[in-house]
């Protein structure tokens, strides 16, 4: 059986839970307390040298790390990852966008805000991320004015990956009022017949106030 080394409040792990649910795949959850250092034990670092969740254990001694790589692995041969080369390339285009633009801005601001760390950050740390978050949301809104979904106008792992953190942007202090196409896309994804797993708040973990190293 698949094993997902998981941290509940992680939206990166949420991506994987979402696709596993869509595909109706059975798996075992292995909780990992990242703020207590459990992702930096020798055992965990054998699975992922970067010491981050999620990690999907696909068999004895076989691990896939990095949430978007796991999505690609699981989506192979399904409607969530096209086979035709051009259509397929449009999916990682948005997976890379998510890593390069959403993670450093929207995801980081949300994490800092929800775990009480924002007050520990200087304006020089926060303000550039706020500007980057606004630019990222504007990019998404511009693209989504002409399509229903991000890649090939079909729901795919690109939407799952980008949705994970971007639809929680208000929790990081982002104002979504100026992005109507983006908000319409959020509503479309949330209403998908596959359903979405719940978002788990950081508040369930008293250790989340610690810095993550």
List the helices and strands and how they pair.
Blueprint: E1 2-6, H1 11-22, E2 27-31, H2 42-47, E3 55-59, E4 62-65, H3 67-75, H4 85-114, H5 123-144, H6 157-166, H7 180-190
Parallel strand pairs: 1-2
Antiparallel strand pairs: 1-3, 3-4
Which structural class matches the secondary elements? alpha+beta
Question: How many DSSP E strands?
Answer: 4
Alpha plus pi helix count: 7
Low-pLDDT windows of residues: none
Written as H for each helix and E for each strand, in order along the chain, the element string is: EHEHEEHHHHH
Anisotropy-based shape? globular
Overview of this protein structure:
- This protein is an alpha+beta fold and 213 residues long.
- It has two domains: 88 residues, Glutaredoxin, CATH 3.40.30.10; 106 residues, Glutathione S-transferase Yfyf (Class Pi), Chain A, domain 2.
- It contains seven helices and four strands.
- It has a four-stranded mixed beta sheet with strand order 2-1-3-4.
- The radius of gyration is 17 Å and the shape is globular.
- The mean pLDDT is 97.
What key attributes describe this structure?
Glutaredoxin, alpha+beta, 213 residues
Structure, briefly:
By secondary structure, the protein is an alpha+beta fold. The protein contains 7 helices and 4 strands; from the N terminus they run E-H-E-H-E-E-H-H-H-H-H.
């Amino acid at each position: 059986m698949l094993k997902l080394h998981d941290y509940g409040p992680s939206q990166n792990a949420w991506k994987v839970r979402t696709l596993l649910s869509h595909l109706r795949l059975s798996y075992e959850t292995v909780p990992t307390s990242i703020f207590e250092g459990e992702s930096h034990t020798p055992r965990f670092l054998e699975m992922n040298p970067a010491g981050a969740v999620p990690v999907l254990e696909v068999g004895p001694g076989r691990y896939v790390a990095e949430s978007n790589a796991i999505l690609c692995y699981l989506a192979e041969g399904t409607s969530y990852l096209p086979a035709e080369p051009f259509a397929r390339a449009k999916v990682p285009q948005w997976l890379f966008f998510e890593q390069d633009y959403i993670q450093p801005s929207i995801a980081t601001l949300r994490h800092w805000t929800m775990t009480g760390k924002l007050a520990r950050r200087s304006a020089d740390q926060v303000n550039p991320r706020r500007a980057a978050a606004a630019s990222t949301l504007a990019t998404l809104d511009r693209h989504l004015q002409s399509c229903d979904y991000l890649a090939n106008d079909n729901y795919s792992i690109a939407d799952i990956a980008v949705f994970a953190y971007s639809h929680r942007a208000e929790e990081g202090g982002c104002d979504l009022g100026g992005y109507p196409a983006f908000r319409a896309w959020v509503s479309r994804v949330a209403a998908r017949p596959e359903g979405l797993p719940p978002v788990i708040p950081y508040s369930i973990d008293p250790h989340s106030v610690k810095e993550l190293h």
